[in-house]
Design a protein that fits this description.
With about 400 residues, the chain is α+β, with helices and mostly antiparallel strands. It folds into three domains: about 5-85, Uridine Diphospho-n-acetylenolpyruvylglucosamine Reductase, domain 2; about 90-235, Uridine Diphospho-n-acetylenolpyruvylglucosamine Reductase, domain 3, CATH 3.30.465; about 245-390, Uridine Diphospho-n-acetylenolpyruvylglucosamine Reductase, domain 1 (Alpha-Beta Complex), CATH 3.90.78.10. Helix content is about 25%, strand content about 20%. The protein has helices at about 5-10, 25, 45-55, 105-115, 220-235, 260-275, 275-280, 290-295, 325-330, 360-380; strands at about 15-20, 35-40, 60-65, 70-75, 80-85, 90-95, 100, 140, 145, 150-160, 165-170, 185-195, 255-260, 285, 295, 310, 320, 345, 355, 390. Strand 10 (about 150-160) and strand 11 form a beta hairpin. It is globular and about 65 Å long. It starts with a helix and ends with a strand.
Length: about 400
């Protein structure tokens, strides 16, 4: 419980302000969710450490919220404190390619600034909403790239010690949409450091919609423009006037399954949709060395819990990554499904669940359950939600 005395101590810290009027509907891109007990805003890394230390010492549950693009929060009051990291210094060293960004920097501003001076490696991560501090937590990735490719270290507040220090990326167990910061309460990222290429060219391109020549490198500005156009076509660039962007982005992670299950799914598609459609099924074999890191299908967890034991694919055979969007569509869910109502699939992209303007968290949850059940019934694959769920479960 948060008592009046602790609230007063938080408010008295230099660089810290508090309020009780903020709601999760105001803080998240899904625009749903009730009010936290308190919202605490910190203007520097030092003030954040002081506030976080007080909350930890008092055993008060808190959740750090940046852009709110990866959160689904229940309706009604939430017994949790929101911490906002309102410091946003960005330091770019062009000659070395080193970039340091404080947690409160808007992520796409980091990408835009790097690309503008010819630094490469994060151009495929253009247009992703949220703040820099959240990027390592789930190893954000898109279009064949992920932050693990360029992250060197993070400035981390350690909840076990109450202190902050630079921690190497190698200590974060980065894997597909995962780090050991996710769900564990290990710490809070206060800043990140990236090492980017300095030759003005992108990282080797691997995504089919960006190149027909895998491994090709192109000018970073060209790739960023192409990625932004692709994301906009899918409703994945935030626009308050466009309800297709009132979402949490890609709602389900791409499932990783044994090759035998992928074969079974492809056979079912062949029976129901024909040979040509089955031949186009996205199947991406994973290297044997990545089995342990990427073979886990993690169950979503609220931030007050540690991550439950992962449901692992049978690692005795090769693993493949499938497309969640492709499976959703083949299970009978079209863009805009169900066509009307407060919550629907995006009219531009079947992997986004959207608030059409008046949805509640319960509406989003009901749609997520329907989609997941449909894919499970059709293909025997249990899709795992990507956002953090608070006060609700699938």
């Amino acid at each position: 419980m948060l008592d009046k005395f602790l609230t007063q101590r938080l408010a008295a810290l230099d660089g810290v302000s508090v309020d009780t009027s903020t709601t999760f509907a105001q803080l998240t891109t899904l625009r749903v969710g009730g009010a936290p007990t308190l919202a605490v805003s910190c203007e520097s890394a030092e003030s954040a450490v002081a506030a976080l230390r007080l909350l930890d010492q008092a055993s008060v549950r808190y959740l750090v919220v940046g852009g709110g693009s990866n959160l689904l929060v229940a309706d009604g009051p939430q017994d949790i404190v929101v911490v906002r990291l309102a410091f946003d210094a960005l330091d770019v060293h062009v000659a070395s390619g080193l970039v340091r960004a404080e947690a409160g920097v808007v992520w796409d501003d980091v990408v835009d600034t790097a690309v503008a001076v010819g630094l490469g490696g994060i151009e495929c991560l253009s247009g992703i909403p949220g703040h820099a501090g959240a990027v390592p937590v789930q190893n954000v990735g898109a279009y064949g790239a992920e932050i693990a490719d360029v992250l060197t270290q993070v400035y981390l507040y350690d909840t076990s010690t109450g202190e902050a220090s630079w921690v190497p990326a190698s200590a974060l167990d980065l894997a597909y949409r995962y780090s050991n910061l996710k769900f564990t309460g290990r710490g809070v990222v206060l800043a990140i450091e990236l090492h980017l290429s300095t030759d003005g060219l992108s990282a080797p391109l691997r995504f089919g919609q960006l190149t027909q020549t895998p491994g090709e490198r192109r000018p970073v500005a060209d790739v960023r423009a192409q990625v932004l156009a692709l994301r906009a076509s899918k409703g994945m660039v935030l626009d308050a006037a466009d309800h297709d962007t009132w979402s949490a982005g890609s709602f389900f992670t791409n499932p990783i399954v044994p090759a035998s299950l992928a074969e079974t799914i492809q056979a079912r598609v062949r029976d129901t949709h024909g040979e040509d459609d089955a031949a186009r099924m996205p199947r991406h074999p994973l290297p044997a060395a990545s089995t342990d890191a990427e073979g886990a299908l993690a169950t979503p967890s609220a931030p007050e819990s540690t991550e439950p034991a992962a449901t692992r694919a049978n690692t005795a055979e090769p693993l493949e990554k499938l497309s969640a969007a492709w499976l959703i569509e083949r299970a009978g869910f079209a863009k805009g499904y169900p066509g009307s109502g407060p919550a629907t699939l995006s009219t531009k992209h079947t992997l986004a669940l959207t608030n059409r303007g008046s949805a509640t968290a319960a509406d989003i949850v009901a749609l997520a359950r329907e989609i997941r059940s449909g894919v499970q019934d059709a293909f025997g694959v249990t899709l795992e939600p990507e956002p953090i769920w608070l006060g609700v479960s699938i």
